[in-house]
Amino acid sequence: MESGFLTVLEGLWGHCSRFQLRGSALMSVSLRSNVAGLKFVTYVLALMIGRKRLVTLFLSGMYALSSFAADSARPNILFCIADDASMKSFGAYGSTFVKTPAVDRLAREGVIFNNAYNGNPKCAPARACLVTGKFSWQLKEATNHWPHFPPEFKYYPHLLMDAGYHVGLTGKGWGPGRYDTEHNPAGPMYDKVKLKAPYKGMSNVDYATNFEVFLDEKKQDEPFCFWLGVKEPHRGYEKDSWKKTDKKLEDAEVPSFYPDNETIRGDLLDYSLEVEWYDTHIGRAIEALEARGLMENTLIVVTSDHGMPFPRVKGQLYEEGFHVPLVAYWKGVIKPGRVVDDFVSFPDVAPTFMEVAGLKPHSQMTGNSFLKLLRSPKSGQVDAKRDYVLLGKERHDTGRSNADGTDLAYPVRAVRTKDFLYVHNLKPERWPAGNPEHGLRNTDGSPTKSYLTNLKPGDSEYDYYELSFGMRAEEELYLIQKDPDCMNNLATNPEYDAIKKGLRKQMESDLVAQGDPRTLGKGDIFDEYKYEGRPFNYDSGESGSLPRMKQK
Asked: Distance between CA 259 and CA 180 in Å, rounded?
């Protein structure tokens, strides 16, 4: 601690230079060998720069010292992830009809990232990016939904476990899919404690109490890394559960790509209760940390794997599908109240956690740590190079096939900058949400989906069906700040032709450098990988049984 404080004072020494005192007798005071010299240095600095300026410098030094102190013991990591919650469904990001006091508190006392992205907007591929620190198209089978996770890849929770961390998981970790390791890629499972959830459809896993069980197993000086993965707000919901609360239909915020009616408003309100259940467990996890005196040296990160389970959102390469919340809290390290505009992506999380733990990121990791962004006192754009992100998808669910019954992807690559979203639909002849005759299987069943699929050509609202389920142009371009719902495709507008071409060139150059098989002309490999979920019979229209999956 003493040496850390001396380091801070040595940093303040640079302010003496403007008084041309370098090389003077003052420099003979060795801060590292003469603690008594602190009083002398402080007195001289006060004379030179004034008391007010010294107080400012001292407070800055103490803030830096707190960061040093936090580094003196390996930090704990609590990673909280929702299953299908949109970024704009949190109060910290402007929601008024979803109440999230715990996340909002962490945002006030920590940092909000305005530009966080999941890389691939579906559960298994997004989470694969998280645990490996790699871009989705670099993960072979794990690029897809319901895959077998290739054993060649390393997972950050397992690496931290090997490095002496107490590691655990509750709820949903990586998945759905099959893996070969003893434990889930997100860590050993803690799910024995159950509860009666307030509404049907919610999991009976008591996430927060299982976290407490995990903490109580931790050795005295053992750092921990825990994955709190709630299964909400994944479908299905207790229909009209919102009517048991004080919520009102007029409270719901309806995106412009849906018709505004009671069915969809009610569906959104049912969804909001599930997001609030996520927030409840985050609040209880915070209480558990505070009760044990562990908030002082714990990095808490809150996110969701992708947007809400509604048509045109979950699994789709539009803004609400891939733009995720990211809030981080770390007392004494993250300056409270910051809002950062730098672009970060799920592949960046694993190398960040490795560095937080004092370890070098694994050589397989291709994401870039944002630890410097966490430590920086600045808001806005901190690193000018973090000004865009790449996105993509391959096969998510069954519902489209070739003649021999092979499940086919709807491959997409995209680039998101501050101003634009450019999307390249590589197989525009395929149905983006699955074939209509097979039930549009790439979209979860819901009252909203049923309302849209009951619309018929010629109906006044039929355009809303097309927005969610219709064929798409090969190229899409959206002026995202003015059109966050991605309603006005500018790709054929000559005024934006140069921008479109420039974004595509930038995107493809990066994808080639990253070895993306699709961009290199070998994308059919993604269709050949086995789908490990319920097989779908395209002749009978029936689904088979789900293979048994281990999860420890």
From this structure: 45
C-alpha span between 143 and 125 (Å, rounded):
5
Cβ atoms of 510 and 498 closer than 8 Å = no
In tens, the pLDDT along 232-280 reads 999 999 999 999 999 999 999 999 999 999 999 999 999 999 999 999 9
Interstrand relation of 76-82 and 326-329 (parallel, antiparallel or unpaired): unpaired
Answer whether residue 52 shows pLDDT above 70: no
Please tell me the distance from the alpha carbon of residue 437 to that of residue 455, in angstroms, as a whole number. 15
- The Cα 420–Cα 205 span in angstroms is 40
Per-residue pLDDT for 200 more than 90? yes
Q: Whose CA is closest to 168, among 107, 112, 223, 118?
A: 223
Consecutive H or E run containing 266: helix 262-291
At residue 1, the pLDDT reads 40
- Nearest Cα to Cα of residue 321 among 81, 136, 86, 80: 86
Q: Give SS3 for 272.
A: helix
What are the CA-CA distances from residue 463 to residues 148, 257, 453, 458, 466 (Å)?
Answer: 38, 9, 11, 9, 5
Look at residue 14 and give its three-state secondary structure: helix
Render the burial of 42-73: b for 16+ CB within 10 Å, e for the rest: eeebeeebeeeebeebbeebeebbebbbbbee
Q: Which two tokens stand for residue 236?
A: 């299905």
Q: Is residue 399 within 8 Å of 434, Cβ to Cβ?
A: yes
Contact 373, 144 (CB under 8 A): no
pLDDT at 415 over 70: yes
- Find residue 78's DSSP bridge partners: 226, 300
- Look at phi and psi of residue 273 and say left if phi exceeds 0, alpha if psi is from -120 to 50, else beta: alpha
Residue type for position 178: R
CA quadruple 32, 69, 360, 386: dihedral, nearest 10: -110
DSSP summary character for residue 44: H
Residue type, 389: V
CB 170 within 8 A of CB 229: yes
- Asked if residue 351 lies in contact with residue 133, where contact means CB atoms within 8 angstroms, the answer is yes
Give the integer Cα–Cα distance in Å for 123 and 363: 25
Neighbours of 457 (CB within 10 A): 7
Alpha-carbon distances, residue 253 vs 233, 250, 517 (angstroms): 17, 8, 39
> Can you tell me the distance from the alpha carbon of 474 to that of 522, in angstroms, rounded to the nearest whole number?
19
- Residues 378-388, mean pLDDT to the nearest whole number: 98
Q: How many CA atoms does the CB half-sphere of 505 hold within 13 Å?
A: 6
Query: Which pair of tokens denotes residue 9?
Result: 């004072």
Please say if the pLDDT value at position 191 is more than 80.
yes
